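Here is the promised in-class demo. Please do not try to memorize the tokens; focus on the logic of going from shape to residues.
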């Protein structure tokens, strides 16, 4: 069974970034992962759905969360979206746990793993196409080329 990576559309006001770019999605697919992308997620970052070949599109964040083992985001999702993560899934993004006292406990459920990325590390990795996933103890290790084109 392949790893399923979910990509949420950003809902924060003024947020135009996307947690992955089409080239990185191609690399994940080439490594055998399945990618579920929320419809229209890339439009604010000028990536129409058509540039994401071979991905599964979902109509809502709930559908992305229900299907995904790992969920990528840039800004913290709402508490409702966090609650919809399937058991055992991992949420990766710049989650800012200090920004919301109500949202922080939502990520502490024993059946979820929430991992916050620091802004500098997240952006550097996205710009250079580096991996944002790394497993411990024999888990999936995704490595992408660090060289610039």
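The designed amino acids, position by position:
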């Amino acid at each position: 069974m392949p790893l399923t990576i979910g990509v949420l559309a950003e809902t924060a006001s003024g947020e135009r970034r996307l947690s992955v770019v089409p080239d990185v999605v191609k690399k994940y697919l080439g490594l055998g992962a399945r990618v579920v992308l929320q419809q229209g997620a890339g439009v604010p970052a000028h990536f129409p759905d058509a540039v994401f070949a071979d991905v599964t599109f979902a109509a809502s964040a709930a559908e992305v969360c229900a299907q995904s083992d790992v969920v990528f985001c840039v800004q913290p999702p709402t508490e409702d979206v966090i609650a919809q993560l399937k058991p055992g899934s991992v949420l990766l993004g710049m989650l800012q746990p200090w920004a919301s006292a109500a949202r922080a406990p939502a990520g502490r459920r024993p059946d979820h793993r929430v991992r916050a990325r620091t802004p500098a590390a997240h952006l550097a990795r996205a710009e250079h196409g580096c991996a944002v996933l790394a497993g411990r103890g024999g888990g999936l290790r995704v490595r992408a080329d660090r060289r610039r084109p």
